């Protein structure tokens, strides 16, 4: 029965944790971070122009692309990430604890470079190959902090990377996110 529960949390295509498992593990890691008042980092990743990739090369090629990107992320982020998941179609998330800002940035940059190095052909992408946009955020998990704020900051950073031309890494601090919310 335990194996069945475990398989319900694994993405069959990539072998990474799926969205359901991601949420459970993220909540658990968040509680651990709060207990130790440590810095926790979130990295959000998205394969650039993936719909165009699927439309051009077909879904079997899209599945293979997802597997290869997941393998590259596992190789770069897997040993450092406490949670690494396929959180949606072409989206991936990772959580790190402890996670100083500099280390989170280094990991995000390395993940972007690793996917570029795969050189998976993509005629719908400016460089001619599959690329990855990433956003990250780091925060101190004190008792008043909330996991959803950290994840929202990483997600908004990802969208900044996409709006800035894709195939790059962007950061949004939690304090910058709170400032944005105050301006709304």
TrEMBL record:
A GO term, aspect molecular function: diguanylate cyclase activity
A Pfam family that this protein carries is: GGDEF
| Gene3D superfamilies with a match to the protein in the record | 3.30.70.270
Stored SMART domains? GGDEF
The GGDEF domain extends over 38-174
Give GO BP annotations, semicolon-separated: cell adhesion involved in single-species biofilm formation; negative regulation of bacterial-type flagellum-dependent cell motility
* GO cellular component terms, A-Z: plasma membrane
The identity of this protein, by name, is Response regulator receiver modulated diguanylate cyclase
